[in-house]
Write a structure and sequence with these properties.
Elements lengths: L2 H5 L8 H20 L6 H48 L6 H28 L9 H8 L4 H60 L1
C-alpha cells in the first residue's frame, strides 16, 4: 500500500477495454451454462446450485446490513463533530492547538462523509436476476425440467455476480474510510489530552 492509498484511498475504475472484457466474459460464461450437458446426478447439482444462489444472496444482504450500520454511525458522529468544532475554535490557550485539532477533525469529517457516500452506494438498488413464477411453470412443462432449473439458477448466479461484487467493494471502501475517520477522532482526543502536559514538560526541560 502506497502513501496516497494510505491517506486517501480511492477505487480504481476499470477502463472501457476492461469493462468490455468483463462483459464478454460474462456472456461467454452464460453461453457455456446454456450449452452445458447436464445429464448425470442432477439432484446433487441442484443442491450445489441452490447453495451458490443462497451464498450470493447472503453476500448481498451482508453488504447491505453493514452499509446500514455505517450510515447509523455516520448519523451519530456527524452531529458530535459539528458540536465539538466551535468548542475547539473557542480555546483561549493559543492558536496552535486549536488549529491542529480543528484540522484533524476536518480530515475526520471528510473521511466520515466519504464513508457515508460509499455506504449509500452499497444500498443503491441494482438489477438482480432471479427465476420468476412464469419461468418456473414453463420449465416444469419441459421433459428435462431439472436441467432447465439448474441452468436457470446458475445463469442467475452468474448475472448477479457483478452487482454483488460491486456492493462488497463499496462496503469495503466505506469500512476503510470509516476506520480512518475513527483514527482521526482518536488522534484529536489524544492530542488534546497530552498537549498541556507535553508543553509543561518541554518548558521544564
Amino acid at each position: 500500500m502506497n502513501l496516497r492509498e494510505l491517506v486517501w484511498p480511492m477505487l480504481e475504475r476499470p477502463s472501457d477495454v476492461e469493462a468490455g472484457q468483463d462483459a464478454a466474459k460474462t456472456q461467454a460464461d452464460l453461453d457455456f451454462i446454456r450449452q452445458a450437458s447436464l445429464a448425470d446426478d442432477l439432484d446433487t447439482l441442484l443442491d450445489e446450485t441452490r447453495r451458490l444462489t443462497d451464498a450470493e444472496a447472503d453476500r448481498r444482504k451482508t453488504a447491505e446490513s453493514k452499509a446500514t450500520i455505517y450510515l447509523t454511525v455516520v448519523g451519530v458522529l456527524a452531529p458530535i463533530l459539528a458540536s465539538i468544532t466551535p468548542t475547539i475554535l473557542a480555546d483561549k490557550s493559543g492558536l496552535t492547538r486549536p488549529l491542529i485539532t480543528f484540522a484533524i477533525f476536518m480530515i475526520a469529517g471528510l473521511y466520515l462523509l466519504r464513508s457515508g457516500l460509499w455506504a449509500f452506494r452499497t444500498l443503491q438498488v441494482g438489477a438482480a436476476s432471479r427465476l420468476d413464477a412464469v419461468e418456473l411453470i414453463t420449465m416444469w412443462g419441459q421433459p428435462d425440467r431439472k436441467v432447465a432449473l439448474a441452468k436457470g439458477l446458475l445463469g442467475c448466479v452468474r448475472r448477479n455476480r457483478a452487482g454483488v461484487n460491486s456492493k462488497v467493494t463499496c462496503i469495503k471502501m466505506a469500512h476503510e474510510l470509516g476506520l480512518r475517520a475513527f483514527s482521526m477522532f482518536v488522534l484529536a482526543l489524544i492530542l488534546r489530552s497530552v498537549w498541556e502536559p507535553a508543553a509543561a514538560l518541554i518548558k521544564a526541560l
